[in-house]
Write a structure and sequence with these properties.
This protein is mostly helical and about 110 residues long. The protein has one domain. It contains five helices and no strands. Helix 1 runs antiparallel to helix 2, helix 1 crosses helix 5 and helix 2 packs across helix 3. About 20% of the residues are buried. The N terminus is likely disordered.
Length: about 110
């Protein structure tokens, strides 16, 4: 089988959440960390949609797991969260990820024909 050796197992829900963030304009962010916060929320919603029902300690643990899972596919995420890179970098990463996802889906559809 051809393809990338390490594939990010990223749920469709996360890509949908990311596409919502992409629509926000950088001038709307008051702090650089705002984009990290939005990204964390998107990761958690996508990976653990039922998170609010969990006890607080378990919820915090799951939030970190969700964030790590997202960061595997979006390398800029940690740097943006810690203010090392500008938030616009996340938009470029998200756009790239969404474009790759669309290409991969198209390839899979062609194989199914």
């Amino acid at each position: 089988m051809m393809g990338v050796e390490k594939e990010c197992k990223i749920p469709t829900q996360l890509l949908e959440e990311l596409s919502k963030i992409e629509l926000r304009r950088p001038e709307q962010w008051k702090r650089v960390s705002d984009i990290g916060d939005m990204m964390m929320d998107a990761c958690v919603k996508a990976v653990y949609p039922e998170l609010e029902k969990l006890p607080k300690e378990e919820r915090l643990k799951k939030e970190r797991e969700a964030f790590k899972r997202c960061a595997e596919c979006i390398p800029d995420l940690h740097e943006i969260e810690h203010g090392i890179r500008k938030p616009e970098a996340l938009l470029w990463s998200v756009e790239s990820l969404l474009n790759q996802w669309a290409k991969d889906r198209k390839k899979l559809q062609e194989l199914d024909v």
